[in-house]
Amino acid sequence: MRPRHWPIGAHGFTLIEVLVALAIVAITLATGIKAAGALVSNGQRLADVTAAEWCADNQLAGLKLARQFPGVGDIEFGCEQLGTTYAGKLVVRPTPNPSFRRVEAFIANADGTPLYSLSTVLPRY
């Protein structure tokens, strides 16, 4: 069997064509890595916000279960969820109806970055 010979004028890829192809591959890979990093970051943010929501829910549920009319003012607290400690603040304010209080729970991470807030209205028992 005779070896195949390249037709005249066909010499393969030029250096410029190879460099352009490598540049396209590099840009595509860089974009993919950036997107993967964003997904990881969003996953961590979702876990933090979910844990902060649990902290706020627990604090407000505790106030409801205590069946005591909260005094007006601010109360700071700490909460640990999923092995992470969160800083929280309950802000109790009066409402136009003196038989109710508005209570807001603000949750932040260890750096002080706000993660979640939740509010409710508690009645006088």
How would you describe this protein?
The chain is built from 1 helix and 4 strands, in the order αββββ. By secondary structure, the chain is an alpha+beta fold. It has one domain: Pantoate--beta-alanine Ligase, Chain: A,domain 2. The chain has a 4-stranded antiparallel sheet, with helices on one face. A hairpin with a 5-residue loop joins strand 2 and strand 3 (100-108). The longest helix has 52 residues, at 15-66. It is rod-shaped, with a radius of gyration of 30 Å.
How many distinct beta strands?
4
Mean pLDDT: 89
Which topology does CATH recognise?
Pantoate--beta-alanine Ligase, Chain: A,domain 2
Taking the sheet with the most strands, its summary is: 4 strands, antiparallel
Please tell me how large the radius of gyration is. 30 Å
Q: Give the CATH H-level superfamily.
A: GSPII I/J protein-like
**Apparent shape:** rod-shaped
- Based on helices, strands and strand pairing, what is the structural class? alpha+beta
The count of helical stretches stands at 1
How many angstroms separate the termini? 99 Å
Give the strand order of the largest sheet, numbering strands 1, 2, ... along the chain: 1-2-3-4
Q: Helicity, in percent?
A: 40-55%
Looking at how many chains there are and whether they match, the oligomeric state comes to: single chain
Percent of residues in β-strands:
25-35%
- Write down the secondary-structure element order: HEEEE
